[in-house]
Amino acid sequence: MLVNKHILASSSVHATPYYVVRGVNPGPVMLITSGVHGNETASMAAAQQLADDCIAGRHIIQRGLLIIIPRVHQQAYRKKIRGKPDLNRTFPRRISGKAKHPLASAVFHLARQYQPDWWLDLHEANGLSQLSSRVLGQTLITNPGSRAVPVCKRLIKQMNRSIANQDRHFNLKQHELPGSARTAGARLLQARTVTVETCWSLKRSVRIKYQRQIVHHFLREAGFM
Questions:
Q1: Angstrom distance (rounded) from CA 151 to CA 147
Q2: Given this model, what pLDDT does residue 86 score?
Q3: Given a cut of 90, is residue 96 above it in pLDDT?
Q4: Environment class of residue 22 by beta-carbon count within 10 Å: exposed (0-12), middle (13-18) or buried (19+)?
Q5: Which residue among 42, 104, 156, 219 is least packed, with the fewest CB closer than 10 Å?
Q6: The pairing of beta strand 171-174 with beta strand 139-142
Q7: How far apart are CA 185 and CA 48, in angstroms?
Q8: Which pLDDT does position 97 carry in this prediction?
Q9: pTM of the entire structure?
């Protein structure tokens, strides 16, 4: 396994590290992004820990290519804000369209370069979806009709079996969000794209644990391990 560190948008104020992890054998491609919103720190910590584990050899990718961008929006992260404008509304909406923010453009250009089979975008949200269908905390979100739906359903069952408190159980939501990384990846790259949302009201250590577990489940399902 080989891990290389690079800098995205290296000549701009949006410069941020990313990691390319090459598995022992050829296989699928997965892109993991986090920190599209700068105040969602647990998801960023989970992504960085995965990169660090790969570098240290604590996590072995047997097959495929894994690209990890732990802190997409460094400027928003430094201020601990969501970001203005909302970066997750600025990704391309049409094949001929362009991103409305240079950072979204850089991320999507990288995605086009690697053509991921899977794109996981790690986030955090308010509220527990078990208690209200109007909130996004503890959900996996994908586009309607996505080929990711069966995998998401299996993964949610696995996760919920390990969570004793039913209020914290995960749910599946299916909807498009034009301008988001998820919908851009699904529409324009035909990737299986999933937004992972943990709930802000939970302890940060618990949110990090859930994010890491979900990513590992996806890696197994996609054949990386």
A1: 8
A2: 97
A3: no
A4: middle
A5: 156
A6: parallel
A7: 22
A8: 85
A9: 0.97
Token match 């618990």: residue? 206
Q: Is residue 130 pLDDT above 90, yes or no?
A: yes
Q: What percent of the chain has pLDDT over 70?
A: 100
Q: Would you state the structure tokens that stand for residue 176, as one six-digit string?
A: 């498009």
Give the CATH superfamily of 2-126+175-221.
Answer: Zn peptidases (3.40.630.10)
Side chain identity, residue 131:
L
pLDDT bracket for residue 20 (50, 70, 90):
very high
Are 136 and 164 in contact, with CB atoms under 8 Å apart? no
